[in-house]
Amino acid sequence: MTTTRTPATTPRRRTLAPFAFLAPFLIPFVLFTLVPVGYAFWQSLHRTERTGGTFGRTETVFAGFEQYADVVSEPFFVDSLVRVALFGLVQIPVMLALALALALLLDSAVARLKRFFRLVYFVPYGIPGVVAALMWAFLYDPQLSPVVGLLRSAHLDVDLLGPGAVLFSIGNVVTWTYTGYNMLIMYAALQAVPADLSEAARVDGAGAWTIALRIKVPVIRPALVLTGVFSLIGTFQLFTEPQVFRAISTSVTSTYTPNLAAYSLASSDRYSEAAALSVLLAVATFALSFLFLRFTARRQG
Amino acid sequence: MAVRNRGSVARRGSAGGVVLILAALSACGGGQDEDDRTASAACEPASGKVTLDYWSWVPGMQKAVDLWNSQNPDVQVKLKSTPAGNVGTYQNLSNALKAAKAPDLSQIEYDSLASFRLKGGLKDIAQCAGIPDAAPKFADWTWSQVDFGAGGKDGVWAVPQDTGPMALYYRKDVFDKLGLAAPTTWEEYEAAARKIQAAKKGQYITHFSQTDPNWFTGLLWQNKAPMFEREGDRWKVTVDRPESRKVADYWQKLIDDKLVATDLQGFSPALYKAWNDGEVVTWISAAWGYSTIRDNAKSTSGKWAVAPMPQWEKGGQQAGNWGGSTTAVLTGSKYPAEAAKFALWLNTDAKALEILNREGGLYPAARTGADLPALKQPVDFYGKQKIFDVFAEASQNVDTDFTWGPTMTDTYRFLSDGTAKATGGGSTLAEVLKATASQSVESLRKQSLDVTD
């Protein structure tokens, strides 16, 4: 009797228990991610119709993929995508290389004051993005910045907020903010590299450089891929820095990045197009991340 | 780990985030506007104690609100100081309206009334006590802005607050030193610009901001170049026309010859420093701008003066208008009667007008405002000049037929994005006008409005 009863109850418990444990994640995920994405998708398929003149009644009608066609045909769509793509091509490798170098340095046997430096590198990430962007904005501003003032007194005429340089200036802010964060992920992965691997290599006559590049880097490859994916996503969703920079640079437009463009459209009452752009951006980001993972996985295999 | 990673993505502003905000904000939209849109709804006073939320960016508004609160214990107004309209408040207000979380009242500039009415954000206060008799109390052109030129047949959608007649603020000391008089024509203004630049490296006659498309619109207004025409229910976009191209070509020349500072954003700390350091020595701005200079270029006290706007024709007397606001009662306010009463008091009561003028530098839209003692006084900051005489005259010379389009947010955005390209050397202001015109037609169509060519 007991033997038959037990299997009858266990499967039910087994099916319920995971959901109970997942609930703290699942409920907010559904409420704050799936539902809004679904709503945005629904909204992107509709547009406003007006009857009874300029200030008459409005009606929401189904428009299929009309908004998508509209958004894609806007010149800013390609411009902003190309801009963030170029941004990513330069900024991500620089930031990750820097993060990796710092992580390897901290992990090396000769490093001193490890705790201190680990904290120092990580501090920028603890500063809210808007505050960081504002702070850098003041450092870039030719009228206010001591740095630019110093360069100018040395007859180096730099315009860090001009049309040619502002993207790099934004890249610098992002690098400054996220290098420490990525470094920490890599450093954590390095802690998990078995000590006997390095020891064995050393016995075989490998130097510190060889151990770092040939042993440690390949072992923490998953962490590198992870930081790569996050950086890629972050790049395509660049928003805070350009938005803050708009107040001081005459070179940042309202459609500078895709995310900024979606925001601008929404605030011009073009909610449907903003929704379509957001959905497109989400799909593009997802596809890119997926491709990146496939690409790195194949090379690994 | 997972939590931290998710945080990283969110901090850089995610599409998910935008989507989420959109959803949250628009969730309560839809049917809700329909009820409030029925025009000329009755406007009954509420019983009991009432609290009104009010958004405004007029400096010192709190003092006027305090005065009202002390006189009206039953109708308390809670003021929220917000950033200037196009700097963020309009966006926040649109979002708040979508979410049905808007305040009872808000400051809204004339140029944005149509777009807020279009999105069903304004309450028709025509039936509210005091409003039917209010028209004669305000300058004609301001009232025709709030009743949309229909003489009351199309509702009343706000109470005029102030106007922004434009004039030329200039550093008299710098001009005197260079032997320059205040320029009376745009030609003289350009000549002065060259002299000012030649006198000292890095000194400019003015800045050409990219985020102040409404400033540029004021320049167009002076040359009688309205951007929109409303013919019944059809709209016509007139952004690109000979009158506006004349203005654009003029400023393009100043930009090309590097006579104006193009790297200073309007109302930015950098601009204020340039004012203080004497690197930017004039500002063509509205009456309310007097407090902007006074409060942000303190070290130049006594050195500024005000002259009428330079003219296109010698001996002309045209003035532009930049901004000027209304106090609007918003959709969803539960107490329209009280809100309208406050709005009317705020913009007609002598004491309130006095406070708003003294603290915020507002030039009142109410006719009685011109008689305020403060507007007859010499102003210390401007070398004891009676500057409001200049603005009183400018106010008479503002073309009163200017019509705003219902999609000004978009039109301004196109202008300002285009200006970024023009000041960066990749385009010209004339091309910007052309592009803005066609983009504006497009955005009217997107709002499913009728557009004629």
Task: Give the overall pLDDT of chain B as a whole number.
Answer: 87
**What's the level 1 CATH class of the largest domain in chain B?**
Alpha Beta
Approximate shape of chain A:
globular
Radius of gyration of chain B: 22 Å
CATH class of the largest domain in chain A: Mainly Alpha
Protein name (chain A): Multiple sugar transport system permease protein
Pfam family, one (chain A): BPD_transp_1
GO biological process, one term (chain A): transmembrane transport
Family (chain A): Belongs to the binding-protein-dependent transport system permease family.
List the helices and strands and how they pair.
The complex is a heterodimer of chains A (about 300) and B (about 450).
Chain A: H1 2-44, E1 46-51, E2 57-62, H2 66-73, H3 75-107, H4 114-126, H5 129-140, H6 146-153, H7 166-191, H8 195-203, H9 208-219, H10 221-236, H11 240-245, H12 258-267, H13 271-300
Chain B: H1 2-11, H2 15-26, H3 31-37, E1 50-56, H4 61-71, E2 75-81, H5 89-98, E3 105-109, H6 110-118, H7 140-146, E4 159-160, E5 162-163, E6 166-171, H8 172-177, H9 186-199, H10 213-222, E7 228-231, E8 234-237, H11 242-256, H12 269-276, E9 282-286, H13 289-296, E10 304-308, E11 325-329, H14 336-348, H15 350-360, E12 363-364, H16 387-396, H17 408-423, H18 429-446, E13 450-452
Parallel strand pairs in B: 1-2, 1-3, 8-13
Antiparallel strand pairs in B: 3-11, 4-11, 5-12, 6-9, 6-10, 7-8
Helix pairs in contact in B: 4-15, 17-18
What can be said about this structure in brief?
By secondary structure, chain A is mostly helical.
Report what the structure shows.
The complex is a heterodimer of chains A (301) and B (453). Chain A has 301 residues and is mostly helical. Chain A has 2 domains: 2-62, no CATH class; 66-300, MetI-like fold (Orthogonal Bundle), CATH 1.10.3720. In chain A, 75% of the residues lie in helices and 4% in strands. Chain A has a two-stranded antiparallel sheet. In chain A, helix 3 (75-107) runs antiparallel to helix 10 (221-236) and helix 4 (114-126) packs across helix 7 (166-191). Chain A is globular, with a radius of gyration of 25 Å. By secondary structure, chain B is of the alpha/beta class. Chain B has 2 domains: 40-163 and 323-371, 3-Layer(aba) Sandwich (D-Maltodextrin-Binding Protein, domain 2); 166-322 and 401-452, Periplasmic binding protein-like II (D-Maltodextrin-Binding Protein, domain 2, 3-Layer(aba) Sandwich), CATH 3.40.190. Chain B is 43% helix and 13% strand. Chain B is built from 18 helices and 13 strands. Chain B has helices spanning 2-11, 15-26, 31-37, 61-71, 89-98, 110-118, 140-146, 172-177, 186-199, 213-222, 242-256, 269-276, 289-296, 336-348, 350-360, 387-396, 408-423, 429-446, and strands at 50-56, 75-81, 105-109, 159-160, 162-163, 166-171, 228-231, 234-237, 282-286, 304-308, 325-329, 363-364, 450-452. Chain B has a 5-stranded mixed sheet with strand order 2-1-3-11-4, sandwiched between helices. In chain B, helix 4 runs antiparallel to helix 15 (350-360) and helix 17 packs antiparallel against helix 18. Chain B is globular.
